[in-house]
Specification:
By secondary structure, this protein is α/β, with parallel strands linked by helices. Helices cover 44% and strands 15% of the residues.
Length: 367
């Protein structure tokens, strides 16, 4: 579904929910959750606001939550507190009797939107002109169902930030080259860790439809899509240098969606789960600067008061699209379910879902 199609389907939040107090909204959500019981399942991504995450049945990363939804066979209503591509993945993995709902259809992902299916099909044609049948496409799970299906149809797979290294190895065992969609930074950081030189990587620019490379074209092994996370790209070398100068004993941990320079300069890097685990396992009084989304950083600050935790970027804001899911929209969605109304349902077309699941399954069988 395109951005314009999403906005056309989005219904305005009724005034009633705008005027309710936070206490009234919380009582309303609590009442309906109790009423629906196991027929309702509410997964919440780590980057969600506290006002929303407090009501979620599970919190985790996007794939983890989609798999949790898949296991909840008794749940008729899955209200996904995350963004659009996450709800799509949940719909792909769940059964026909289950309805996946996104409280606000405007909760998208700028990274996922940087690779649409039309751009990708044109790129594939041009890249095959350059390299012939030597490329396997793989995509970060932070992508649309259509991009997952594109990879699934061509023998490729999905990856997460936790298993990207394993999947890149798998892809390069199958083909001489790979196309990594849609996050160039995760692709570059992963390939570099596997010993692939930066000169063996090129960037595909979907706007100019050109291949950007500094090395000989016949030596290219990794083709990186020119996409990025608008949150993680805001962590800079200036942020690193400030910490190193002012607090040299503060350890820096960043997500691999950050730029290569920032990842190289940090003390540690890891997926969202790896960052949470690192803080959980850290000694009391240890000092950390974290390079990831601000809602999660603030939550870690609250949950681990005996550790000194700050954001690597002191001016960082929460993910704006994640923040579309708020308490009024959540209450509205549950109220519609109470009326047996399918509200803001996320439904992936059958053929797309079938091919996307192939890409997911090729990864999951190696998990």
């Amino acid at each position: 579904m395109s951005i314009m199609e999403i906005f056309k389907k989005q219904t305005a939040l009724p005034e009633h929910f705008r005027t309710m107090s936070e206490e009234e909204l919380c009582d309303y959500v609590t009442e309906i959750k109790a009423e629906l019981g196991t027929k309702l399942y509410m997964p919440g991504h780590h980057y969600q606001k506290d006002e929303v995450i407090q009501f979620c049945d599970d919190r985790g990363d996007s794939l983890q939550l989609a798999q949790a939804a898949e296991r909840r066979k008794e749940a008729k209503w899955i209200v996904f507190c995350g963004v659009h591509f996450m709800a799509e993945t949940a719909d792909i993995l769940t059964e026909d009797h289950q309805h996946v709902i996104l409280p606000d259809l405007r909760a998208g992902c700028s990274m996922a939107d940087m690779a649409d299916i039309h751009q990708t099909e044109r790129a594939w044609e041009k890249l095959n002109d350059y390299f012939g049948d030597t490329i396997l496409p793989i995509t970060y799970v932070n992508s649309t169902a259509e991009i997952k299906a594109f990879c699934g149809k061509r023998g490729g797979a999905t990856v997460t930030s936790s298993n990207a290294a394993k999947m890149v190895k798998w892809a390069l065992d199958k083909k001489e080259r790979l196309l990594f969609l849609p996050d160039q930074h995760l692709g570059r950081n992963t390939a570099y860790d596997l010993g692939i030189a930066l000169e063996e990587m090129a960037v595909w620019d979907p706007i100019s439809e050109t291949l950007l490379t500094e090395g000989p074209i016949n030596q290219i092994r990794i083709i990186l899509w020119k996409g990025h996370c608008s949150v993680h790209e805001k962590f800079t070398m200036d942020n690193i240098e400030t910490i190193r100068t002012e607090e040299p004993d503060r350890r820096i941990i960043v997500h691999p969606e950050c730029t290569w320079e920032v990842v190289q300069a940090a003390d540690y890097k890891g997926s969202t789960k790896a960052i949470i685990d690192a803080i959980d396992n850290a000694k009391p009084e240890s000092k950390w600067a974290i390079g990831t989304e601000m809602n999660l950083v603030n939550r870690l600050i609250k949950e681990y008061p005996d550790r000194s935790i700050i954001s690597l970027n002191p001016n960082m804001c929460p993910c704006l699209t994640m923040n579309r899911i708020d308490l009024p929209h959540l209450a509205w969605s549950l109220g519609e379910i109470r009326k047996q109304h399918i509200h803001h349902k996320i439904k992936v077309k059958d053929e797309t879902a079938y091919m996307a699941k192939k890409a997911l399954d090729r990864m999951l069988v190696r998990a």
